[in-house]
Recover the amino acids of this structure.
């Protein structure tokens, strides 16, 4: 059984029993990461629907608002703890350059600084080089690093409160458990967006698709599954991921939009949403059921079993679902596979056919074996990360 050193004194005093499990600072952070990820999804849709934007376009303002909220809230938190004379509060923090703050707070401050620095850099990049041809241009890479830092900092902050209260008041901790699952799902969405250019429905029979999913996405799922205290953590986190992406898929096409940058090959009349979400809730549920049976085994055995289960379930779910996504039956409001950015020709040939693999047959099957190895290795790294998160207290 794991041992976690409580930061709070036991038994809990009456004033602490009445205390809300979610602090104002935590609410500030959750609002911030929600605003950031809303802005990121909106911004990608803006680029696919309208074209070139400005430094102060609405999606950018949503991203910067989230960065400011988490940055300012974290700086206030750092100053309060640094100048506090209460030993208990100072002991719940780490030291950095003479200042005191929880690790999550420091990550949020660094992330906010990186995000706000990327804003003028991105504007200069657009003015110098023109349109974004890739999601990960240098300024976007800096912005992405800042967002990941803030999301990680928010997860660690919620985790530290969750783990502290788990030792002293486990019956009144559901709000923090669900808050952690929500922030973990936003982190998963950020990683999904990082590789979304390679996750189209026509690429779902290509080994690269499974190599990316079994490396970039399994690691946060395995880690947050291990760090969460919910009964079905992976199902909950991938469920939040699915719901959030379905909301954008169904709401964005209801908002009018008009392309403002040539060439306009597809004159859209509304926002173009991101792709239909991956069926990650299938491997999420299987991981939850499997992990309950193997949680006492060696971590290497856990990684082999979890990685193999994830690879097989993703392969079966996405392989067969892709036939439906490439068929005329999915050209509707629910699945939105007919939606196309304004700069792509809707009459292009092979639009609904699977992309051909460029290598040999042996290379094709070897690619799937590499995806399986990725799943085991990154499952191991995710479980190790999750074991560390389960002990986070400051």
């Amino acid at each position: 059984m794991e041992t976690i050193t409580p930061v709070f004194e036991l038994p809990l005093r009456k004033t602490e029993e009445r205390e809300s499990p979610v602090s104002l600072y935590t609410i500030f952070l959750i609002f911030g990461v929600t605003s950031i990820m809303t802005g990121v999804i909106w911004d990608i849709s803006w680029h696919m629907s309208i074209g070139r934007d400005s430094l102060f376009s609405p999606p950018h303002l949503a991203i910067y608002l989230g960065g400011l909220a988490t940055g300012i809230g974290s700086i206030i938190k750092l100053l309060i703890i640094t100048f506090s004379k209460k030993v208990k509060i100072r002991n719940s923090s780490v030291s950095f350059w003479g200042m005191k703050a929880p690790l999550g707070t420091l990550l949020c401050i660094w992330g906010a600084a990186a995000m706000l620095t990327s804003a003028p850099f991105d504007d200069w990049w657009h003015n110098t080089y023109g349109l974004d041809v890739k999601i990960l241009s240098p300024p976007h890479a800096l912005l992405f690093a800042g967002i990941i830092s803030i999301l990680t900092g928010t997860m660690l902050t919620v985790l530290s409160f969750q783990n502290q209260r788990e030792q002293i008041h486990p019956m009144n901790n559901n709000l923090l458990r669900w808050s952690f699952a929500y922030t973990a799902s936003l982190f998963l969405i950020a990683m999904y967006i990082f590789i979304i250019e390679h996750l189209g429905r026509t690429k779902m029979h290509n080994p690269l698709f499974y190599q990316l999913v079994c490396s970039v996405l399994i690691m946060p799922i395995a880690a947050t599954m291990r760090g969460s205290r919910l009964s079905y953590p992976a199902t909950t986190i991938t469920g939040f991921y699915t719901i959030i992406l379905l909301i954008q898929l169904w709401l964005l096409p209801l908002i009018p939009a008009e392309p403002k940058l040539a060439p306009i090959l597809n004159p859209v009349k509304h926002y173009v949403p991101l792709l239909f979400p991956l069926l990650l809730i299938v491997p999420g549920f299987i991981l939850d059921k499997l992990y309950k049976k193997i949680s006492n085994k060696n971590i290497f055995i856990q990684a082999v079993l979890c990685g193999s289960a994830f690879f097989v379930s993703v392969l079966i779910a996405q392989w067969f679902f892709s036939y439906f996504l490439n068929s005329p039956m999915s050209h509707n409001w629910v699945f939105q596979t007919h939606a196309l950015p304004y700069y792509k020709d809707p009459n292009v040939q092979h639009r609904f056919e699977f992309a051909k693999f460029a290598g040999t047959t042996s290379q094709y099957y070897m690619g799937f074996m590499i995806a399986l190895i990725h799943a085991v290795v990154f499952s191991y790294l995710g479980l190790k990360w999750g074991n560390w998160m389960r002990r986070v207290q400051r």
Summary: Residues 242 and 277 are 6 Å apart (CA to CA). The chain has twelve helices and two strands. The longest helix spans residues 138-168.
